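Database export, one record per block. Field names are fixed; values are copied verbatim from the stored entry.
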Amino acid sequence: MVPFDVIIVGGGPSGLCLGNALLEKSLNIIVLEQGQIGNSWANMPDHLGTITYWKSNFLRKADDKYYKLNSITSASEMVSYLESVAKKLNIKENSKVIKIENTNDVYSVVSSTGTYFSKKVVLATGYYFNPYTPDFTKDHCEIEEIHFSDYKNSESLKKYNDILVVGKGLSAGQIIEEIAKDKSKNVSISARGKLKFGAHPLIQNFTLRFLSVFDYLYMKFSGRPISVPMGYGAKKYINNNQYSNIDRIEGRSVYFEDGVCRDFDLIIYCTGFRPVANKFFNEEKIEGFQSTENKGVFYLGLESQRNFKSRFLRGIREDSLILADLISSQTRLD
């Protein structure tokens, strides 16, 4: 008999929400977290937090009053909340998963703290687990390069004057809006096509108060994937400092696809993250939450998005309950 019914890889919102749902179904689980609880939130840029109100972000029904329903939650407040969600769970922190192997439908999860066995494994490593950085031709690159996941605050950028932000989504706008407030910094952006910005703050605040209604309408009449654009506030800082995609980098010079060349001290890649599937399995197809090749492997994150909400905490809350029912029903049949 294997020690655990389910091993959950990842102690962020997805893993903790699912862990509590499985615990309510009397399953024996363990959560392996490569850092501390809420690791991604703890390492976010200091000024960031949720972009929606608390009523859209709590993970358990009993937590609806943990913070004020119409309040924005900071990253540090989210870490505190996640620590409370984790209290009843069997969690192994600082346990980085190295590999996962399948032998006769028993999965061995090899980590930095030991090897754990179960019949089911859930990869809930979170959106920020696998940063993506574009691969450009580089010749003696002298420009420092970091990913959004490495950025902490504008204070850490004191020695840089000419900064290029690569990307056109929410994170790119957030970084531009923060560092461009320092008038000594020359901040530019490299992005494909026309930039899009979010609604005016008055409209956005109205939308956030009635988000469940807008979610319903979007689901009913659109069905298309949703992208989160830059915040409205970033618009005034970009002006004419927009460039096309990067073609190559030579020394301190960045050559763009439209032929323009500029020198920079620092490049910040706000280019998103990639699914975790190929980190441990060469997955070609995933049906719903479940691997088609490894029936005991499930995904809760980028690979298993039921709809556009799955990218957000309110979607994680829904997806976790559905996945918990699926795992529980399969466990009873084993």
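Remark 1: Residues 4-129+273-333 form a domain with the FAD/NAD(P)-binding domain fold (CATH 3.50.50.60).
Remark 2: The mean pLDDT is 89.
End of record.
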